[in-house]
Each structure stands twice: as C-alpha cells, then as structure tokens.
Design brief:
The chain is about 40% helix and about 25% strand. By secondary structure, it is of the alpha+beta class. The protein has one domain. This is Peptidase M23.
Length: about 160
C-alpha cells in the first residue's frame, strides 16, 4: 500500500513540475513575441521622416507621427486596443504600458549614446532615432506564482 501511495504522490509531483515547465515555456514565448513587437514599433516610429526639415537638409523624425506609428504597431502586433489593453485572442492578459518613448533628433552630436540608469539601458545612435521601453506582464497559469514582468527595450535609427 505504501508503494502505491508513494507512486501516486510521485506522479502528482511530476505532473506539477511538468506544468511549471510548460508555464515557463509559455512565458518565454510571450517575451520573445512582445520583444519583436517592441522592435517593430521602434523601427516604424524611426521611419517617420520630417519632410519640412528634410527640404532644409536636416534629417529629423516627426514626433507626432512617430508616436502614433509606434502605438499602432504595438496595438497590431500585440493584439491591443487603443488603450493598450489586450483584445480577445491576445497572448497578453494585462495591459501593456509604454514606460519610455524618446526621439533623439538633430539637437545632439552623433554618434550619440543614450543612457537610462532606471531601466539599465544604453544605446549608441549614429543618426536620429527612437528609444522605446514597454512594460509587459505575463500572468502565470498557477495563481500561487507571481506574474512575470519585463521592461522590453527597443531602439531604431532613421534609415535613409
């Protein structure tokens, strides 16, 4: 009888460990998909050329178009609504939060190194660019485990 109870207990423990491993794999898939979305959004924002300044020979990113395009790409790639809340079918369960959206334009000397100690991020830009940090939370399958949260960082330069 003791062997039977021991076997059942071991099977339950093995299933729990297997479920935890599957949860970790789902979390890693979420972070990879979300990171790709942040990178795409930063790249799309960085391509919003200010044509008025270009006529004067100045490479610059148009701020209002850049932010709109970044948010549109985040919404599309993460299945979010206008408030960055997940829509049905999204792999996220909690809203995404844009923690930082910074445009580095013609007012600096290139190459320019952007540093942010709060998010432990550093990037060097050779021309105008965009820095984007988005906070994403992955809800765990088991309620006893705290959600996994990431500050996903992306940057892109104006391509001409």
């Amino acid at each position: 009888m003791a062997k039977l109870v021991f076997s059942v207990l071991m099977i339950v423990i093995w299933w729990m460990l297997h479920a935890l491993q599957m949860d970790e794999e789902l979390a890693m898939g979420t972070v990879h998909e979300a990171k790709r979305a942040v990178d795409r959004a930063a790249h799309a924002a960085a391509q919003q050329l200010d044509r008025d300044k270009l006529e004067l020979g100045v490479l610059s990113i148009k701020a209002e178009f850049a932010e709109q395009k970044a948010l549109a790409y985040l919404q599309e790639n993460l299945s979010l609504d206008a408030g960055l809340n997940p829509q049905p079918g999204s792999f996220l369960r909690d809203p995404a939060e844009v923690r930082l959206f910074k445009i580095v334009n013609e007012g600096v000397v290139y190459p320019y190194t952007y540093r942010n100690s709060l998010y432990d991020y550093e990037v060097t830009l050779d021309r105008p660019g965009v820095i984007l940090i988005v906070h994403v939370k992955y809800p765990r399958l088991f309620g006893v485990l705290a959600p996994v949260e990431w500050d996903l960082k992306g940057s892109a330069e104006l391509v001409y």
